[in-house]
Design brief:
heterodimer, A: about 220 residues, alpha/beta, Beta Polymerase, domain 2, five-stranded mixed sheet, two-stranded parallel ribbon, about 25% strand, B: about 425 residues, three-stranded antiparallel sheet
Chain lengths: ~220, ~425
Amino acid sequence: MSQYYSELSDKVINTLAEIETVKAVVAHGELTIEVSKENLVRICQTLRDNQELAFDTAIDICGVDYSTYEGSKAYTSRYASVYHLLSVKNNHRIRVRTWLDDDFPMVDSVVSVWSGANWFEREAFDMLGILYSGHPDLRRILTDYGFIGHPLRKDFPLVGQVEMRYDANKQRVIYEPVTIEERVNIPRIIRDDNRYAERLADKEQAGSDDSKSQGESA
Amino acid sequence: MSEIQNYILNFGPQHPAAHGVLRLILELDGEVVQRADPHIGLLHRGTEKLAESRIYNQTVGYMDRLDYVSMMCNEHAYCLTIEKLLDIEVPERAQYIRVMFDEITRLLNHLMWLGTHGLDVGAMTMFLYCFREREDLLDAYEAVSGARMHASYYRPGGVYRDLPDSMPQYEASQWHSQAEVDEQNKNRQGSLLDFLKDFTDRFEGYVDEYETLLTDNRIWKQRLVDIGCVTADEAKDLGFTGPMLRASGVPWDIRKMEPYAAYDKVDFDIPVGTNGDCYDRYVVRVEEMRQSNRIIIQCIDWLQNNPGPVMHEDHKVTMPDRMDMKQDMEGLIHHFKHFTEGYGVPEGEAYCSVEQPKGEFGTYIVSDGANKPYRLKIRASGFVNMSALNFLTEGHMLADVVTVIGTLDIVFGEVDR
């Protein structure tokens, strides 16, 4: 599996070389490439139209907010837009990640490449406030009508900001600030777990041997 | 001179054919749909946000509540992703149990779909037939996990416990005489596997019954044939997976293409359609039920002859045996750690998907090494199928919208998450 994906990684890098030099990582039998947001649509088009790659389906598009990430890798940007693509024709997958600006996360929409991307981008906009320029209909999708904020941002409280109830006097539903407090039963902990360190180091070593274009390692 | 305007119709959210809480804004010209704008999110519970604040095992229960008609398949995708990040191998017996329950779940889902779709289109009997069979399968769920719907039976590293040796029995009451109850308990004398074996023997005949009612039924065909056609290229472009894609003639099935669990060791076929209309989706799903039945039979045979562990033995990650917890110091510590802190998952990211009855269900986990996921993204097939509603219904009659919604097989638990 990893062997196949490191070969695919070379293929992808060579194909995209005329647009830009991409960083590629193979981990857990999955290929991840990082591309710049300016060339995203062109790259997606190439990934779809090249017959050897033929990524004909957008399986998933989501945003990630890295602002409280505590792992060993340091991420410079706060937001990333992540695309999971599948080639039904050739039976392989790829993950494309593009980093966005911190204060105004915006990237070109890929709806013109895969029309299935439409709702995924609406969802990422709703949940993380990532703007997809050129999207035909960038409305909120999952949250309430008139909702304020982007729930999956790390600075959005888990309990939310407003709660809703029926007011008998006004005879309508009203919104009020939340009265419940956030409660943490099990704290978030990162332990030094050396069991995995060794195993992962071995893998990374093996990975960088067969693909020369290894991204920055942990 | 009066100006002719299109009529805007608000369909749902409280409409029996809306399959839950779909609010659909339809723009109609006479009875022809010009534009369909689904408003979803009325069942949004923020599962992804909740998962970020809970340890890994606590989220297994939330997975059941996504697509609440295919519970164990959702858990399977989530567990596979964690297992991939932890790099652990699930014992073979647990893999077969998972395959068997995935297929039971597929039957549950397709029976639910067939029953409600029949109801939408006007075949009342289907609903009663399908729910009769669902009862037996839900009993299997109950026997193994104690819950009829939200099982949370799969765990990262295996399944919670081995299959039970006996089935719960009906008891006589003032409404049911002893003779009646004895009749009901007849196939419950052996183990769960014997009970399922009895079911699989009968099930093929049941599917024949459904087909005699529907497949060549003139009304059924008039309502379904050539409604909501999708070509193979359109289906891929729209992101369809599962039966929606296969009905358009693409033989794509994750169980065959990227086999997980024990799917590479069982024998089954993938049915494909030709036209990609509602009727083909019906035929594909009915054939899938027959194939699922085949897989269950093979799993029962294997499981009857191969006892073994059902949980990975690294108790840093999986729960220790109950007896160990009571008698062994290390077991006690593991148990304590599991409930006070959980386990850390090594830093990294992974996406794993399974062939859930509705299509590809995947979870994408970003871990920074903590005992809770940093980010969990759920890829639900219902969400993608729903997004194609405008494309599928444009130019069709109002009554066909109901057929198309039915054939998309949407469950709002997973569309809204």
